[in-house]
Structure formats: structure tokens, C-alpha cells
Amino acid sequence: MMLSTKILHLLAFFTLSASCSQLPEQTHFRLPGQTVQNVLDSDFDRFVQEILDEWNSTAGLGVAVVQKNPDETWNVETQGYGYAKGDGSKVTEETYFHIGSNSKLFDVFSVGLLISNESLSPRISWDSRIASLLPEWSLNDSYTTSHSTIIDLMSHRTGLPRHDLMYKAHASPSDMLAQTKFLKLSTGFREQWQYNNIMYTVLSYLPERLIPSVPNYARYVKDNIFVPLGLHETTFDTERIEKSGYLAQGIVRDKLNKTENIFGRGTPRVLINWNPSTEDGNMISGAGGIVMSVRNAATWLQSLLLLGKNPTNGKTVIPPEVVQKAATGLTVLEGTATWLETSPSVYGGGQHRYSYRGRNIVEHTGGTPGFLTVISRFPFENLGIAVFSNDGTYGQHIMQAIKWRIVDQVFGFEPIDWNARYKSLVSFQYNQTTTSKLPRPSGPASPSVSFFSIAGAYNDPGYGYIDLCLIPQQDEDIDAAKQPDSCQALLEEVPTRLPDTINTSVPTFVARWDKLWTTHFIFEHFNGNLFNATALASHPILDTSLVPANANANETYFTQKWELASATAEIVVDDGKVTGFGLTGIWGPGPGVESPRGENVQERSEVWFARE
Ligand SMILES: *[C@@H]1O[C@H](CO)[C@@H](O)[C@H](O)[C@H]1NC(C)=O
Ligand SMILES: *[C@@H]1O[C@H](CO)[C@@H](O)[C@H](O)[C@H]1NC(C)=O
Ligand SMILES: *[C@@H]1O[C@H](CO)[C@@H](O)[C@H](O)[C@H]1NC(C)=O
Ligand SMILES: *[C@@H]1O[C@H](CO)[C@@H](O)[C@H](O)[C@H]1NC(C)=O
Ligand SMILES: *[C@@H]1O[C@H](CO)[C@@H](O)[C@H](O)[C@H]1NC(C)=O
Ligand SMILES: *[C@@H]1O[C@H](CO)[C@@H](O)[C@H](O)[C@H]1NC(C)=O
Ligand SMILES: *[C@@H]1O[C@H](CO)[C@@H](O)[C@H](O)[C@H]1NC(C)=O
Ligand SMILES: *[C@@H]1O[C@H](CO)[C@@H](O)[C@H](O)[C@H]1NC(C)=O
Predict the structure, then answer these.
(1) For residue 211, which ligand has an atom nearest its CA?
(2) Three-class secondary structure of residue 593 per DSSP
(3) Which end of the chain has the least Cβ crowding within 10 Å, N or C?
(4) Keywords assigned by UniProt (predicted)?
């Protein structure tokens, strides 16, 4: 998903029955018999309001806190804050948020249900090889293809980096399976944790492939997890929830001048539902397709703390060893701690685990256009916290500052000013990114062929076709006849669809890139055969009371950049003809993983588009 800086996280491999019976003794941070205290009180309301103000957020938050009392009853608090939608409606405990990658745990649990299913013939295990379950499975390396297991996919260690820009919204799992063999791997098998959404799409294909009566993944999860756990406000059917009015809208900051004030409001814009889906789900369901209310997040947290039981009727829905497996580290997500108070972090399946000021925490985050979520639990202290944000610009920091404040309060720790830490982190990262990007040299070298001859069609078997069209420069009378016919319509739509993005004093190519997260690509000339490549998402501007339509009456779309470190396209010219271009900086590798090395551009690129 559109995972930002502090990316979304996930699997496990040891004897779970043993870990169940050997759960460490509960650490007592309360006096024996002392009941838990409420957290979401009026002081907390003020705190949340201050945070929203400080970040100039026009969005809102849903918060759930569950704590188990010594008498085994639960203290459940759920509350909404701020705005859910552009029409000014407020967040309530019933507002649904896209939980993004927090959906991955449902994928792992559905695989866990298949593994625990004694009627399944043949039985499968965490170590079953994908090639034995899905004969068409293939990655771009024969050893990896034959040896990859369920565990490898869940714990992000196949060697495949994200490649999040290659899939379309309407791809089917079988389309995806047909394409994965063409994607370049960035490390050897099991060498490194590298977050990967595509592998969760592959896992989500297992229920329907192994049980003929299962129509699809989404129905399997509904019947076997949502319904039996009583999660009635949790669904893949985002279209129904949107129609009902309960789905929050992601709110982002258009025209934010970060140099002027990085925490400015910009022009707030609401995003359309990024994932229109029915109850049958789609290719992204396993990796990130669920919407949920915070009222249900509370129930979900209770079920997790109860190791898979329905908190109301006590029935086991997910076998406890499956819950434990997911929460047990297999891969190393962060080998060194980010903060003084946190430990290094390990990843299980749809869960990562680390410690905070000496307490074990199991959590995951989610990030999709306009939505950031965190679902955390302290399994030994029976504390669960969920914070959902629809501030698509700074939600990931706002939600963490709020989460830590709750944690510090519940444990009675000296409060840390997490808000100030995140604000300086944001500022620091912005400064770093801006200083690391070089501006175009003042006297750039021309490419070794004319710009016109670069325009045209290219193809990568994994990513698909791309048609580059040259945008006319200032005062230039472009001869459209020199470009493919398909460019006419695209060039006409650029001013409307991609406002504020084209610098007409730099030779720039534009292409449609109609995938799940993006709509276009632009390649701006840098120097010689190098171009700066940026993936863009063009969003329709919705008329909302939050942003009066008269603000910019002639604008119908706004543009968001896909946050890439620095993507570069290098064209290759052979004998006066362009043979293709390589892209680097776009495959989304794990920490510390470098771009490919090689003799030539094709080998050195992460994705190679050959001239058609
Ligand atoms: C278990 O497997 C049987 C036999 O394939 C199937 O009918 C049943 O639906 C499965 N149940 C679950 C929860 O997977
Ligand atoms: C690996 O990918 C390349 C380029 O996409 C393709 O030509 C090749 O056939 C693939 N190899 C395998 C083993 O799938
Ligand atoms: C952003 O703000 C800075 C500092 O005020 C200013 O110099 C710059 O021109 C602004 N950029 C845009 C695109 O308005
Ligand atoms: C945003 O927040 C900053 C402080 O964080 C404040 O100085 C500024 O006035 C606020 N408002 C806008 C519209 O930027
Ligand atoms: C980032 O740069 C701005 C402007 O130079 C400066 O005011 C700010 O303190 C810097 N932030 C950090 C965290 O270094
Ligand atoms: C443009 O690409 C070049 C070459 O990769 C890189 O050095 C530079 O930092 C990029 N500039 C921007 C603004 O992204
Ligand atoms: C909208 O109007 C402004 C100001 O007149 C102009 O600068 C801008 O180019 C127009 N945008 C479109 C998409 O026509
Ligand atoms: C457009 O590009 C020129 C040449 O590189 C540069 O001087 C100028 O600042 C750019 N304009 C904007 C708005 O980025």
C-alpha cells in the first residue's frame, strides 16, 4: 500500500503449542485487584484537539482502548474526534476507516484456519511450498520459486521487493500470479525482510484454491472470521459502507508549500474511496482491503488478547497457536532500535513485535491513500489500542503520538513528548530529502537522440506498456504529427488532470500509468540520457463544505506525487535508436537493499522497459 516513511509491517516459525503453555507470567503494573482507569476522558479530548491544531489537521481520528480488569471483565472505550468527511460530519465510534495493511492479519489467519483444518485433504502446514499449492506460482529465480513456503510469503523474505507500481486495481489474483515471474528480485531467497503486498495477494488466493466451495477470499474471511467474532462493522464491501454514509474520507493537503510552513494546512481536499469493492473483494483484499469502525477495532483487539476467542461468547474462532504464530518474529524488520525507549523489531505474519520501555508490544500499521491506522496490543498486560486517522498527509505521526500518550498514561510512565519528536522528525526528513535531490544542472547535456525520438511505446512484461508523450515546452509549437496518435488526447488532458506539476521550461514526457495507486508518470529531463521519474495520482476535486468550490472554480483535479526516494529513468541509445529505458528508485526494497549492479542499464535497472 502507499506505505510512507515508517512503513507498514509482519510471521513465525516455532512450536506454538510450547509457546502457549509457556507464556511468561503476567507482569503486574497495577496493584493486585486494582481496576483499570479510563483513558479517553476530557483531558484526553483536549490533548487530541491540541495535536490536531498543531498539525493543522482538518481531518479526524477514531480511537479504541481495551483493558482487561482483574476480574476478567473488560473496560472498553471508543471515541471519535474531528472530521470524518468533507461535508463537516464528525468521526464517531461507528465511522469506518480503511485499515490498509492491518488487513494482512486476516489474510494470515485465514491461512492459519486452512492449516488447522483437519478435514482438508491433503493437509497443509506453515512450511507448505507455494509451488505445491499453486502450480502456476513463479518468481524470477527457480530456487526461490520451488522453495518458497507460506512462511516466506508472510514474513516478507522471498527476495521480491514491493513493486507496488506494477499492479492494476482490477487485476485478479491469477493475473498477478502470471506476472510475478517477470519482476526482478532485489535480494537472494530468505536474505532480507522486504515488505511486499503482492505476496499477500498470493496468500489470499489459497482459500478458494484449496476449498472448491469457497467463492473467494473475502467471503471466506467474512464467514470464518468477521461473523464468528461478531465483527459486524468490518467488511470488504466499501461500496455499501460509502453509500450508507459511514465511510470516512481521506483528507490531504493540496498546494502545501512545505518550505514556507511544513505544518501548513495547504488546501484541504478529500479523496474518493481508493478501493471501491463489494463483499466479494478484489486483488488487494488480502494486503489491505478491509474497512472497520473503531467500535469493532475494540472487539478485534479483545479477540487478539484472548488468543482468538469471541469476547462475548468465549468461543474459539482462531486457534490460539495461529494467533501466536502470527505474533512471533521470524524476520528482522529493524535490526537497530529507532528510539531510546524501543527495541529492535521482528516480524511474524501481519504483525511485528518489539518492546517499549520494557513492555512487549505486538502491532501493525496501515497506510492507504488518505488513511493511516495502527492496531497495537500489549499481550502480557492485556491492553489494546487502535488509532485510525483520515489525515492522509500527517496521519501516521498524529496516530503514533496519540498511541504513545495512551501507553504512557496506562503504564504510569513519565510522559514523553512524542508529538514534538514526530514534528522534528518530519522536518528533519523533509530537509534531508530536499538537500539530497540535485537540481537540474544549469547547462544540461542533451540526450544522445532528439527528445522526439524518445516518445513512443515501451514494454516490460511485468509492469506492462507505457507510452511516453513529449509535452510542448514554453512557446513551442509542437508538431503533434511527430508523436503517436494516442498522445493527442493525453496532451490535451494534462493541464486539467495534472495541474501544478509540469514545468514547461524542462523537457518533460508524460504517460498514463493507470494502476491501483497512480494515474500518470512524468519524466523530466535531468542531464544527458537521465530523467527524473515521478509517479502521480490525479484525483477529482470533490465539492465539499470543507473546501468551498469557489476557491478555484476552474480546477477539477488535483495531483499528488507518489512518495519515492528518487526515481530515475535512463534511456539507452544504440546505433542512433532508443532501445529502451531502465527505472531505478521505484521497486521499494527492504532497508539497506541497493539497486541492482550490472554492466549496462538493463542490468542496473530495477525495471527495464524495452522499446516496442
Ligand atoms: C475445512 O475443510 C473442509 C474440507 O475441504 C471444508 O469443507 C471446510 O469448509 C473447511 N473449513 C475451513 C474453516 O476452512
Ligand atoms: C525473468 O524476467 C525476465 C524479464 O522480465 C524474463 O525475460 C525472464 O524470462 C524471467 N525469467 C524467469 C525464470 O521467469
Ligand atoms: C514556497 O515558499 C517559499 C518561502 O516562502 C517561497 O520562496 C516559494 O516561492 C514558495 N513556493 C511556491 C511554489 O509558491
Ligand atoms: C499551522 O500550525 C503552525 C504551528 O504548528 C502555525 O504557526 C500556523 O499558523 C498554523 N496554520 C496554518 C494555516 O498554517
Ligand atoms: C529544517 O530546515 C529548516 C530551515 O532551514 C530549519 O528551520 C529546521 O530547524 C530544520 N529541521 C530540522 C529538524 O533540522
Ligand atoms: C534527478 O535525477 C538525478 C539522477 O539520478 C538525481 O541525482 C537528482 O537528485 C534527481 N533530482 C530530483 C529533483 O529528483
Ligand atoms: C485556473 O485559473 C487560474 C487563474 O486564472 C489559471 O492560472 C489556471 O491555469 C487555470 N487552471 C486550469 C486547469 O484551467
Ligand atoms: C522550472 O525549471 C527551471 C529550470 O530547471 C527552474 O529554474 C525553475 O525553478 C523551475 N520552476 C519550478 C516552479 O520548479
Answers:
(1) 1
(2) coil
(3) C
(4) Signal
